[in-house]
Write a structure and sequence with these properties.
This protein is 49% helix and 17% strand. The protein is built from four helices and three strands. It is globular.
């Protein structure tokens, strides 16, 4: 899975924000503010990856147990799918 190229992550005034570009902006009216770990996962999703890759990345970067990391990744992916950010 991968984020659509029509959504870009930018750091604006110290905040990580995803904004739609091109025609996507017509259907998606707004922007998404990400916390540190969500932005970390977004950057991983800029390259093709899967749930296991995201869980492994979280475990390597943060002090979190595997069940918590897996739950967080699944919830994050579900939210991105809901708003149409993933290919």
């Amino acid at each position: 899975m991968k984020v659509k190229k029509e959504f870009v992550l930018r750091n604006i005034a110290g905040s990580d924000i995803v904004i739609p570009i091109a025609a996507v902006g017509v259907d998606f009216n707004g922007m998404i503010t990400l916390n540190e770990s969500a932005a970390f996962l977004w950057r991983k999703l800029e390259n093709d990856t899967d749930v296991e890759g995201l869980v492994s990345a979280l475990l390597a970067e943060y002090e979190v147990d595997e069940p918590t990391a897996r739950t967080c990744v699944k919830e994050y992916i579900a939210k991105l799918e809901e708003i149409g950010c993933l290919e």
